[in-house]
Amino acid sequence: MSVRQWKHERPFTGSLLTLLSGALILWVPLNLIVKAFLPGTASVIGILFGGMILLLGAMALFFPQFSKVFGIIIIFLSILSVIGALGGFLIGTLLGITGGSLMIAWNPSPPLQKEEDQIDAYNGYESAELVEAK
Amino acid sequence: MGKTIELKTTINKGNLNRKVFWKAFASGMVVLAALLSFMGISGTAYAIPMAGVGNFYVEFDHLAGNGYTFYPKMGESSKEKSTPQGTNLIKDLTIDHLQLYKDFNISGDKWIRVKIAASKPVHISGLQQDASVINADAKFSNLALKEKQSTDWQKQFQQTASTIELNHAKIKTHYLFQEKIMMNGMKVTVERINKPAN
Fold this sequence. Notes:
heterodimer; A: mainly alpha; 8 helices; B: mainly beta; 2 domains; 1 helix
């Protein structure tokens, strides 16, 4: 499987934007804890939201069939991350909303026909009812 | 007649429904706008980190708070990586006529001042302020200054008080953090000034 094919089989752009968003949202509370030694409630909430967004962004790459559910949760968490993590200075929130929307709007391609079906289609498939009628 | 065999590689492409994308995006933005306007109306901003702003001034007419702790430390400012400072921790406090400002030298002798002011009383919980100069009329209750045996010099001296009251204060601040702040009547201005505050 080529890289191009791999990318097309999952909501790649949406996942990428979501991963960026998660990283930005995480950056603010991590900075607070490292620089200010303030592991308060706000920082914990920020880390939880940022971590969840990162995780969902990565999961969408491996479970593309659930991209719509992931997208909705990502948008929800990105907006809530404004409280506690400043939404990665709002840029993280905007990226999260865009990434989540791309995941919701992404549709997997219809499955390819099996080899037998393709042969039938080539030879002219006749259904059981049609054969009976004849 | 020769037979031509054509080999094709098909990529199993997912597709994007633009209509659904814009609907989801617009819904997200509406909810975000609602949350931001709610925070704006209630004057609440959570966890405002101002790290890195460094060496700015805090002025107010009156401060009343409880649960005060002070200890010395070495901290960062906009000019130096490590400079002597004191950390002030206050659990809950109310400030009247608060003004925060930072002066920037934009070129030569041209200066601008970014000022945040609140016309109504400001309520803060979980304040940490690292300052190098505090000028104020102070009043404490249950004030205790104590030494502790520790290998960490920052833990060797501590000042605590159950309540603190400061009047007409000017504080040279390097770091400011509030767990929760209610800033009603907030006004942010950027203006030209002749010379910076000292």
